[in-house]
Amino acid sequence: MSVILTKTDYILYRECAKNVWYKIHKPEVWNESELSEFEKAIIETGNEVELVARKLFPSGFLIEGRDLEAQEKTQFLIEKKERVLFQPIFVKDNFLAAVDILELQDDGSYAIYEVKSTTDVDTKKHYHDLAFQVNLLEKFGLKIKKAHVVHLNSEYIKRGELNISQLFKTVDVSDQVFSIKEAVAAEMETALTYIGQEEEPKGYCSCVYKGRSNHCSTFAYSNPKVPEYGVHDISRIGASRGKLQELIDVGIFKLDDVSEEFINKLTLPQKNQIEAYVFDRILQDKRKINEELGALVFPLYFLDYETFPPAIPRFDGFSPYQQIPFQYSLYVLDKPGDELKHFEFLFSETGDPSLDLLKSLQANIGDKGSIIVWNKKFECKINEELAARNKDFELFIKEANARVYDLMDIFGNQYYVHKDFKGKISIKNVLPVLVPELSYKNLEIKEGGTASQKWNEAVNGNVSPGEKQKILDNLKAYCKLDTLAMVKIWEHLHQLVN
C-alpha cells in the first residue's frame, strides 16, 4: 500500500506515531471518536483566521482543492511567476503539503507564510510545520529564503474597522526553521516508512506517558492494558511526566497497585485521590467547610456566565479571543429557608451584549450579600473586562467582585474528596456525586463549549426563526441548571456540617 504523508499527519506523527498509523490503515477506528464541539470550533476558527489573514496580501491567487488539477494549476502559476499564491498544493515522493501563503520575492526566491490562529509562535509545532514545507518545496526546485508565522496579536484592541495589519503579527522564523530542516527531512522519511507498515506497530503508543487529557483518539486500541480509570487519571500527573513514566515503565496502570513509597512523593490532591479510591473513603474536613460556609453573607447570589471567544474581535474594545459574555443565570436566596428567586439574561441580537448584560445584572444583584460562583478567576475576569469597556459600571463591578466566593475552593482545597470525583473538581464531576438526582443528561446542551457555539450559531448563523428560538430555550435551560447545581451543592454541604 502506497501512502502519502501530509504535513498535517507529520505533525500528528510527532505527537503520536501510532495514532496516525490507525488514521491511515484503520480509519474506522480513527473515526470512532467524534469531534467535540471544542475541536470543531478550533477547525472553524483556523479557517476563519486564515481567510482574514489573506487580506494582508490583497493580490493573492487562491488554489482550491487537493486533486491533480490543483497540483497542475499550482505549477502553472509558479511558472507564470504569479506573485502570491494562497493554498498552492505540492505532492512529491509521497509527501503532500498545502502552503497557506507563498510569496515570490524580487530575486526569484520564495517566502512561506504559515497562518496560525494562536496568539504566539508554538516552538514545538510551527517550526516543524514550516520545515516540512521547505523540504517539500525544494524538491520542486524552489528556493525558499524566508519562513514566517502569521499569528493573531493578543494586544490588538478593535476600534472601528478591523485593522488587519495590527490584528496580526508576522514573525520571521527563518533561522529556526532552517536550523532543523535537515533533521526534519530525515524524520519525514522515518515517518513515511512508519505509516507505510501494513502490520500494526507493536507496543504502546507514545501517549502512554501522557496524562489522560492529552491522549490520542485511538489510545484505547493502542494500549489495551490501560484501565478506563487508573494512574493516567491522577490529577496533574501529566505535568510531571517523570512520575508517570516511573509507573508505566514498571507496568503499573491501576491505582490499587501504586506503592505507598510512590504515593509519598505525590502532592496532597494526588495522595487524597488515590486514598479515596483505594480505600473507598470520603475525605471530609467538616470544620473547614463550616468555616467557609459560615463566612458567607445573605442574601446569597448564585451566578453563572456563558461566553463566546471569537478569534477575530467583533466589537469595539475587544481583543482576539476575548470572551463575549452573552448570558447569565442568577439564583437568589434572601435567607435560609426562603424560596429561591431566579433571574436570567440572554442576548439574542448580533451586537455587543455587554451594556445590556450589565444593566440587567445591576438590577438583580443588591449591594449586600455573597456572590457565589464556580471558578472565581474566570467570572471575576469577565466582570473586570466588562467594567473596562463600560466605565459607568466600574464601581458596581469592583464592589461585586469583592463579594465573590468560589464554591469550587472547598473541593480544590481538599476539604471534600470523593473517589468518584476522579481527581477533578469541575461542577460536572462534583454534581453527579453529591446531587445525583440533578443531571445534564436530558438537556440538549450539556457543556459550556456547546453553549458557546450554539449561541454563535443562533445570532450569526443561517438558522430559521424556529431553530433560533429552540437554541435560545436550550441555552436558558443549560445555564439555569449550572446555577441550580451550585445551589444544590451548597445545600448538600450546608446539611453536612449542620
Q: How would you describe what is shown here?
A:
With 498 residues, the protein is α/β, with parallel strands linked by helices. Helix content is 44%, strand content 15%. It has a 6-stranded mixed sheet with strand order 2-3-6-7-8-9. Strands 13-12-11-14-15 form a 5-stranded mixed sheet, with helices on both faces. It is globular and about 80 Å long.
Write out key terms for the chains shown:
498 residues; alpha/beta; Lambda Exonuclease, Chain A; Nucleotidyltransferase, domain 5; 3 domains; six-stranded mixed sheet; five-stranded mixed sheet; 15% strand
How many whole angstroms does the radius of gyration measure?
26 Å
The main sheet orders its strands as 2-3-6-7-8-9
Mean pLDDT: 96
Assign the structural class, choosing from mainly alpha, mainly beta, alpha/beta, alpha+beta, or little secondary structure. alpha/beta
What do we call the CATH topology of the largest domain?
Nucleotidyltransferase, domain 5
Strand content: 5-15%
How many domain units?
A: 3
CATH superfamily annotation of the largest domain = Ribonuclease H-like superfamily/Ribonuclease H
- The helix content, as a percent range, equals 40-55%
What is the straight-line distance between the termini?
69 Å
Task: Tell me which CATH architecture of the largest domain applies here.
Answer: 2-Layer Sandwich
Uncertain runs: none
Q: Mind summarizing the main beta sheet?
A: 6 strands, mixed
Count of individual helical segments: 20
The coarse silhouette is globular
CATH class of the largest domain: Alpha Beta
Tally of extended strands? 16
